[in-house]
Amino acid sequence: MSILDIDERLFTLLDKVEFDRSPITDIKEVGECDVGIIEGGLCNAENVEVLREFRRRCKVLVALGACAINGGLPAQRNHLSLPLLLQEVYRSEPGAEYGLIPNDPELPLPLNKVHPLHEVVRIDHFIPGCPPSADAIWQVLTGLLEGREHPLDHSLIHFD
Amino acid sequence: MTYGLETAEHPEQLRRVAIDPVSRVEGHGKVTILLDDDDKVRQVRLHVVEFRGFERFIQGRPYWEVPVMVQRLCGICPVSHHLAASKAMDAIVGTKRLTPTAEKVRRLMHYGQILQSHALHFFHLCSPDLLFGFASEVAKRNIVGVAAAHPETARRGVLLRRFGQEVIRVTAGKRIHGTGSIPGGVNKSVTREERDVLLADIYDMVAWSRDAVALVKQLHGQDPALYNSFGVFRSGMMSLVAPDGALDFYDGSLRARDESGAILFDHVNYREYASYIREEVKPWSYMKFPFLSSLGAEKGWYKVGPLARVQNCDHIASPLADAERREFVDYAGGSPIHAPLAYHWTRMIEMLHAAETIKDLLHDDDIMGDDLVSTGEHAREGIGVIEAPRGTLIHHYRVNDDDLVTMCNLIVSTTHNNQAMNEAIRHVAKRYLSGHRLTEGLLNHIEVAIRAFDPCLSCATHALGQMALELTLVGADGVELDQLARHGDGTVSRSPP
Amino acid sequence: MSATFLLDGRAIPFSEGQTILQAAVAAGAYIPHLCFHPDFKPHGSCKVCTVKVGGRQSASCTTAAAAGAVVESDTPAINAERLALVQMLFVEGNHFCPSCEKSGDCKLQATACDLGMVSPHFDHFFPDRPVDASHPDLLLDFNRCILCSLCVRASRDVDGKNAFALAGRGLRTRLIVNSRTGRLVDSDVSAGDRAVHVCPVGVILPKRRGFSVPLGRRVFDLKPISAVADASAQIEER
After folding, report:
1. DSSP tag of A129
2. What letter would DSSP give residue C64?
3. What is the mean pLDDT of residues C194-222?
4. CB count in 10 Å sphere of residue B168
5. Is the CB of A1 less than 8 angstroms away from the CB of B26?
6. What is the predicted pLDDT for the residue at B371?
């Protein structure tokens, strides 16, 4: 959602999109490559599946934001054991009734540790920041559209 | 009551339909529907599939880090977490009363957030359903389609959100995940230049917010049968109210009403929340199910957010929004409105109130003061409650003698609405899905009901643009009967076996 | 101060006994560095200040300046090596910048940004390192330690307390507190000590003050570290 911070530049993007009929296909055709942008780290088995599918489908994959790049806030659980964590959140908290831990097959299994994307698939571009500034996102997007080699200036690199 | 649709008796004999993921909402969730041989809906569930564990891993961290860290739970309304945690930490550092500058800068930040979040939700996420129809062409049913068909509406939506984000930037230091609010106060006030820039645009924002309310009323008026009945269920509602009963997003005490609008409790100090609210865990969702402990899990669940707040309060302190509130309340002759689609109407009334309040605060010189922090005798426990865009948000912490957090309990806004959203989609599934063959438009009806609540289901793996969506119908013998796929480019295909 | 050497083509004056980095810092020239501080005896451990002199790479903080020497520092090859070193520091500890109160005032973060680091590249270790909050005025967050030993040197050489030490070898090297219990409260460290102010990252922090400086007014908010001449001193004032 942080991409919406490009504000009315969104319409500039959509102009190009309309020209080529849809946002994603437009970007793909202008850069002659498929661009996938992924936010968020890998927290459960389903996240890994979705990421691998993106990697197969997209020619260029961009990791956007701290969670995607280094695990971010969810990775702050990584030094703790998962069973202990589930126990704490669902059974020991004030006000929690019928202490049980959600275990339905419909729920994807959480990973023992939260992983950044690049530990699982190849990532072509990274936009750091929590979240990255709109200018950083804009520069990478336009950079990819124009086929620039290094789409992010050092001055737009922030980690917080 | 459709509580029965929560769990079917012999799920192994039923066909499963899944909407995975739910799109045009923040975060990750999916819906599963089980049907019997006669295509009757037997079970419907909204599953929240993300698990974070923040409550545990914040333990052992210093308390002053919490307001900055906890907001990372969310990218849409981080200010809510920032401020709820700050309010809890005010108690830890012994703040009896914020300085006028601190309180007003925080309020400005919060109302800026209400404005941007409500604008985002209505214009960017939901307006395509309402403007084009729930079953309209999927390729157009997004902000791109709105920008093409209603350019001025789309432009105003984007600029309203931008303004709200700028208010946040000025008060918090940056648009998303700032550091402006600290235990006991704020770390900056507003400069005259910053204020003047915002003042130049605020009158447009008030006018456009008023137009947005008119737009929703117009939509409502075009098809009242649909808007008044879609996904309707009855439930109680809860929110904070100001001491004089006014709508207040930043502070107040808890008030709850039952489904007929009668007061269940009023002016409850939110520090007592644990005596009034308990949470149930169900095996099929990582999101808990809160309920009013006096009524029990089965009857005690309730709604929060705009629809609850606008009906729960006695009045709104800003004139334009209050006139709209009265018109809304009169619409049903004074009895409570439970229609999920009325969330949009009330959400826009709140956006108007936020714009009016920002206007008043910008005219108050206290926001430019330099008395930023007040502290007193430290305490070991702090509870902060705020009305986030999506509803009541509760933060509760305990801190040890070494200043480290030892306990944290959060009840976030969307969690309060967990049961309500499940009820809404059960009604929609029963009414629109039962006995019918799958269509993409039908599938979207379920999502329209979820979107009305503006859920924030946590953030995980997101894509730019529209996500692919797949719907699979599997027979009791495990054989795939029907498959419907919505692709990344908006096209839909059916692949019958 | 008549003798000079050439740093990336720029003449840097030096006096007898100065190292390349000491002379460069004194002249306002930037060579990336983390474990070096102009007030303390060079340690030569982080290697981020590595330069090429006479065809050989060496740590500029411990290499004596020599008249007429040709020193290469800001080259793509050397910066790539520096970047790898910094990335290894990031994955070795728990550097979660978004909620760290040292963000914007942190040399590790600023150096990484200046070197163009956009990802940690390597796999994270995610170590378990509890904080030491026992002291009434100070917090030790070992998650962020880069083993620069500046606190060790400052406590030993300036405060005369020997409160900190690096223990262990290789991958198991860690910062410890020299006290009976190993806890900071049982050492003689106090909030006024030089040792508690020199930390270039967010390990040694004053309690109950985090985030009091708004965004935009932090040391590296407006200028990259390469353009902040007295970065070490400015951070210490915070």
Report:
1. S
2. B
3. 96
4. 27
5. yes
6. 98
Rg for chain C (alpha carbons), in Å? 18
Residue B427: which residues within 8 A CB-CB, separation 6 or more?
B2, B231, B232, B233, B449
Alpha carbon C150 to chain centroid distance? 8
- Identify whether B21 is preceded by a cis peptide bond (ω within 30 of 0): yes
At A61 the three-state DSSP class reads strand
C10-13 vs C138-140, strand pairing mode: unpaired
Identify all chain B residues contacting A48, using CB atoms and an 8 Å cutoff: none
Q: Is the torsion defined by CA of B60, B62, B63, B64 positive or negative?
A: negative
Q: Are B363 and C168 in contact (CB under 8 A)?
A: no
B93 to chain C, minimum CA–CA distance in Å?
9
Q: Is B463 a residue whose pLDDT tops 80?
A: no
Which residues in chain C touch residue A127, judged by CB atoms under 8 angstroms apart?
Answer: 118
Q: What is the mean pLDDT of chain B?
A: 89
Tell me whether the omega of the peptide bond preceding residue A131 falls within 30 degrees of 0, making it cis.
yes
Nearest-CB residue to B72 (from A38, A72, A86): A72
- What average pLDDT is seen over chain A? 79
Q: Using CB atoms within 10 A of its CB, is residue C142 exposed (0-12), middle (13-18) or buried (19+)? A: middle
Give the tens place of pLDDT for each residue, B122-138: 998 899 999 999 988 87
Facing B464 at nearest CB: one of A24, A67, A72? A24
Partners for C (CB, 8 Å, 3+ pairs)?
A, B
Cα of C127 to nearest chain A Cα, Å: 6
- The residues, ordered by sequence, that sit 6+ positions from B464 with a Cβ below 8 Å of its Cβ are A3, A23, A24, A27, A35, A36, A37
Task: Tell me the per-residue pLDDT of B428-455, one tens digit each, with 9 for 90 and over.
Answer: 999 998 888 878 788 889 999 999 998 8
Query: Which residues in chain A come in under a pLDDT of 50?
Result: 17-33
Alpha-carbon torsion (B314, B320, B323, B325), positive or negative? negative
CA-nearest of B471, B469, B466, B467 to B496 is: B471
Angle subtended at Cα C14 by Cα C13 and Cα C17, rounded to the nearest 5 degrees: 170
Instruction: Give the angle subtended at the CA of B294 by the CAs of B292 and B300, to the nearest 5°.
Output: 40
A:C CB pairs within 8 Å: 74
| Whole-number pLDDT of residue B300 | 95
Residue B283 has its nearest CB partner, among A67, A86, A103, at A103
- Token couple for B205: 């924002």
CB–CB of A157/C113 below 8 Å?
yes
Torsion-angle region of residue B3: left (phi > 0), alpha (psi -120 to 50) or beta?
A: alpha
For residue B157, give every residue at least 6 positions away whose Cβ sits within 8 Å of its Cβ, in sequence order, or none: B119, B120, B122, B123, B124, B127, B143, B146
Q: What is the pLDDT of residue B490?
A: 40
As a whole-number percent, the residues of chain C with pLDDT over 90 amount to 92
CA-nearest residue to B63 within chain C is: C208
Indicate the residue type of B149. Answer: A
CA distance C13 to C20: 10
Mean pLDDT, residues B325-332 taken together: 96
Kindly state the tokens that stand for C196.
């508690």
pTM (global) more than 0.85:
yes
- Tell me the C-alpha distance between C130 and A2, whole Å: 33
Neighbours of chain A (3+ CB pairs under 8 A): B, C
CA B35 to chain centre: 30
Q: What is the nearest CA distance from A151 to chain B, expressed in angstroms?
A: 18
Contact A77 B56 (CB under 8 A): yes
* Structure confidence by residue, pLDDT tens digits, B375-434: 999 999 999 999 999 999 999 999 999 999 999 988 889 899 999 999 999 999 999 988
The minimum CA-CA distance between B439 and chain A, rounded to whole Å, is 22
